[in-house]
Amino acid sequence: MTRVTVVDPYAPEPVGQYSHAAFRADGAVLLSGQTPSDPATGKLIDGDVSEQTRQVFANLSSVLTAAGRTLDDVVKVNVYLVDMADFAAMKSVYSQIFAAPYPARTTVAVGGLPLGARVEIALVAG
Fold first, then answer.
1. Among residues 57, 102, 101, 47, which one has the least CA distance to residue 79?
2. For position 19, what pLDDT does the model report?
3. Strand order in 104-109's β-sheet?
């Protein structure tokens, strides 16, 4: 199978060797993790984890649009936090993004994230 990828000119530039998203053979789209970077500057936005989570979802939504999908198509969410004390703030924003029935979700604490971000989120959309 030939790899079909998505590059969104409106999302922040990747900070490594990866595509914004790639399609699976069954049509699902796997989005690379997004950090709370401003697409115009490529720099991390100022703000607490709530503001960072909002920016991450704005970036993810943009990539989904470029892939012909929306947040309503999301079936799996992977959340990476540098501090689990930020879980409640992230979950508060998350609950504004998704409604029942909710996608499957995994949330883990990590030792660090690119650019000093507090949160990174990756998605799978059907």
1. 57
2. 87
3. 4-6, 21-23, 29-34, 119-125, 74-81, 104-109
